[in-house]
C-alpha cells in the first residue's frame, strides 16, 4: 500500500478526487511530461502514460491517438495559449482536470527565461467550465481548495483563506 503523505496539500486532494472517479484498471493519458503527480498516480496503482513534451497548442496528435479510458490534465492548461484544441482532441469520455485560480492579490506566473514555464492565463471557475462546455464536456463534479505556502507575508497569509486550485471531473457530452 502507498502512503498519502505528500509534500503538497493539492497532491492529497487531487489523488482522493481521482480515486473517487477513476478505477485503478483504467488507462490514463496525463497531459504533460512525467512529473511528480504522474509518479504518484503510478505508485497508487494507475497505468499512466504522459505526453512527450510537444507543444499542445500546435500538435494534439498524441492526445488524438490515445486509446485509453481517461485523460488527466493537472496544472497544464494555464501553460497553453488555448486549451480548447486539446480538450476537443480527447478521444475518451472521461477527464480529470485542475487549473490554478486567478488570484486578486497575485499576477499570473511569468518566467522571462523560458516561455514554456509560465502561465498565459489563470482561470476563474466559470472560464474553465465554459471552455469545457464549448469543447463538448460536462462538469460532473468539482472542488476548489487552498494551498498554503510556508512563507511569511501578506500573500502567503491570504493563501490560507483563498482558493488556489479548481479541480473537475467531466464527461464528454454525447452528440
Automatic annotation (TrEMBL):
Q: What is this protein called?
A: Methyltransferase
| Alphabetized InterPro entries for the sequence | SAM-dependent_MTases_sf
Which domain of life does the UniProt lineage start with? Bacteria
Mention one GO biological process in which this protein takes part, according to its record: methylation
Which species does this protein come from?
A: Nonlabens arenilitoris
Q: Which UniProt keywords apply?
A: Methyltransferase, Transferase
Lineage of this protein's species? Bacteria, Pseudomonadati, Bacteroidota, Flavobacteriia, Flavobacteriales
* UniProt GO molecular function: methyltransferase activity
